[in-house]
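quick one if you have a minute, typing this from the bus. theres a chain ive been looking at and ive put its sequence and its fold in C-alpha cell form underneath. please have a look and point out which stretches look like helix strand or loop to you. anything you notice is useful, everything is just below.

***
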Amino acid sequence: MEPERESGDPGPPALERRLRAVEAEVAVLKAALGDALRRIGLWEGRLPHANGAIPDPFTPPDPTGTPPPPPPPPPIHQRWDADGGDPPGRAGGGPGAAPPGVSPVPPPSSTVHVFPGTNDPRISPPHGDPQPGPPRGTERAPPKGAHHEPRVTPCKLQPGGGLSEDVPSGPPHHNVRPFGPCGLPPRAAPRAPAARLGLRLPGPGQPLQPARVGLRGAHLLHRLRRRPPPRPPPPAAPLPAAQRLRPLPLQPVVHIWDSATLLTLQQIGLGSFERGVGSLAFSCADQGSYLCVVDDSNEHMMSVWDCARGTKLAEVKSTNESVLSVEFNPQDSSSIITSGKSHVYFWTWSGATLTKKQGIFGKYKKPKFIQCFVFDAAGDVLTGDSEGNILTWTRAGDGRGVGKGGKETYQIGQQTRAHEGSVFALCRRRDGTVLSGGGKDRRVLSWSPALSLLQEAEIPERFGAVRTIAEGPGEELLVGTTRNALLRGTLSGGFTAIVQGHTDEVWGLATHPTRCLFLTCGHDRQLCLWDGQEHALAWSLALEDTGLCADFHPGGQVVVVGLLTGRWVVLDTETQQPLAGGSDGNEQLSVVRFSPDGAFLAIGSHDNVIYIYSVTEEGRRYNRFGRCTGHSSFITHLDWSKDGHFIMSNSGDYEILYWDVAGGCKLLRNRFESRDREWASYTCVLGFHVFGVWPDGSDGTDINSLCRSHHERLVAVADDFCKVHLFQYPCARPKAPSHVYGGHGSHVTNVRFTHDDGHLVSLGGKDTGVFQWRVLGGPSPEPR
C-alpha cells in the first residue's frame, strides 16, 4: 500500500509533464478542429448530390414553366476566394450588380496551389458562389486566384488581368556580375582577431602571398566566402523541409591566385582541412614555393604544401589552443613560427617531419594572446601580445637570452612596453625600422632596430583601433582598422580613409531616385552614403540607435531612416543634418517608404500598424495623417501604387492586405479591386506577381528581400542561403528558373536596383558586406 502524499504535494514530476503534454495536444486538436470547421463552412453549399451533380447558385424559375436546361459542369479550375471579399460583378453587395465601367470578366484559366514539399502545382477543387446570382447565361465568372502556402498560414494571391496567359517561363535574359564589394572584409571569426588580415603589396603578376600581397585578406576573403553559414544545433526531430533546403557545407580549400589577373593558379588541400583554414603563409626565401596552412580543427593541424604540384609534404598536430598567426623565416624556409593563445612555437621542417620548440617566458608574465610577430634584421623574432608589450626572442645559446634553457631553445631577450592595450600589428620597414599598431590607444609607433621610439601617430576615433599595417611606396603606409576601414597616409602627415565599411549586420538599403547613390545602415549604428560610380563612400555618420530601414524622398535631397527603438529620423543628404523625426510605438520599424509623388510617408512597425504621414516642403515637414490597422502580425514589406493612393503590405504571418490611403487609410476587403492596380515599386515578397520565386518547402522566412527593376522586367531576390537570385518579372509560375549568384558569406538581407537599373546592390548579414553588381545583357525597354 502506497503512503499517502502530504497536503500540498503536487505529485510526481512525471505526472505534471504528462498533464502539460496532454494540454498541448488538446490545444493543437482545437486549432485543427477550428480550421476544419472553417473549411467545411466554406464548402457546405457545394457538396455533390447522390447523382454526382454539383448544386448551382439559385436560379430564378422561368415564368413559362419550362425547366431550365441542365447547366454544363463547371471547369475544375473555377473557385472563389473564400475571404477575398465580394466576387466580381457584385462589388457593393448587390446580386449581379456590376460596378460602373467594369466589363464582364473572362473565365479564369487556372488556380495554382503551391504546396510545401511538392514539385507540381495542384488544381483546386470545384468551388462556386454561395450567394444568389443572376440568371444562367448572364452570371459572371469568378475571379482568378492563387494560393501561396508558406507553412503556417496560407495567403490568397490576386493575379492581374492577362498574366496567367502570358507569363515568362525561362530565366531572365539579363545577367549580373560583381562590380566589387564596398568596404573591407569583416573579421574572420570571433575567436580569430582581424590582425591576421594583414596588408601586403604584391609585385605585378606575382601570386598572392604574404611576402608581397596587396591585400593579404584576399587569401582569407576567399576562404570566408566558402565558409558555410552558421548551422543550427542538431535538432532532436527530423529537419523540416525548409532546413533541408540549406546548402551542404563546402569543404575548406586554399586557392592561389595571380595578383594581376586574379585567375586561380592552384587549388590546395581539398578534403584535407577540417572546419576551415585558420592561418596560412607562403615561404619567402624561395619565392613562395611552399605554403604552410593551419586549419581550424581541435588539434589545429599544421601542414606544408608544394605550391607548384599542390601536394602535401608534411603534416603534424600543432596545439589544442587557438593559432592566430604563422610565418616562414624570410631567410630560411625550414624555419616556421606559429603564435596564438599563450604560446609561441618555433618549428623546424625537414622532409616529411615538423618538430617544434616552445618559447620560454621565464621570469616574464605569460600573456593571454600573442597576436602578431615579425623577424628583425638580426634574425630575432619580435612578438606583440595582449599585454601591450613587444618581446624580443633569441636562441638560448647566442649569449643574449635571459634565464635558463637548454640547447636550441628560444627565450625572451628584451621586453619593451609599447601600447596601452593589445599590440595587434607589427611591420618591418625596408629601412629596418619596425612599426607597431595598438588596439586601445589607436596609435601607430615607429621603432628603431634597437626598439627605441622614433615617431608616433594616432588614428581618429571614428575609424576604430589599428588591426594591421603595411608599407606602401616611399613613406606611405596603409592601415586597416577594427571598423573595416583602410587608411592611407604617413606618420607625419596623418591618415585619410580610402575604404570604409560596416562592422555589424547591414539591413537598411535605399537607392537614390536619380543618381547612382545608395544608402546603407545596420546594427553598427552607422549610416553610410555610397557613390556607385566612384565605388567609394561619400559620407557616414553615427545614428542614435540601430538602423533597420531607409528610403529616399523622390526629390533626392532627403532621406528617412527607421530605427530599432521605433523612432525615425529625416536627414538632409547634402549637409547630413536632421530635419525632422518622430516615434511610433516602442517596437522596431521594419520598413519606411515615400509615395511616388512624395506626398505621403508610410512607416511599417512591429506593432502591426502602418503609420501614414503627410509630407510637405520637399520632405522637410511631416504631419500624422492616419494609421492602417488590420494586420495580425508585424509589418515586413509595403509598396505604393503608382498614383500614390494605395498600399500593398505583407506581415509576419504571411498576410497580404491592401489599403486606400487617400480614402482615409481604409482596408480594402475586396481584393479584386486591386487586381490590375499598378505598383510604383514591388518589394513585397508575397504576391501573385512574384510567388514563383519561392522554392518548394519554404517556411516563409527563407526570402529576406525582393526588388523589381524599374523597367519591370527583372526581380532580384535575397535569400537565407548566401545567394542572390535574378528572375524574370512577372514571376508567376511555380519553381520559376533563375540565375543564382554567390559571394556573400552569410544570409543576404536586402537587394535594390539603382535608378537606371544599371547596378544591383545586395547587403550581407554576418559578413557585413555591401556588394555592387553590374547588370548585363538583355533589352532595356520603357517601363510598363
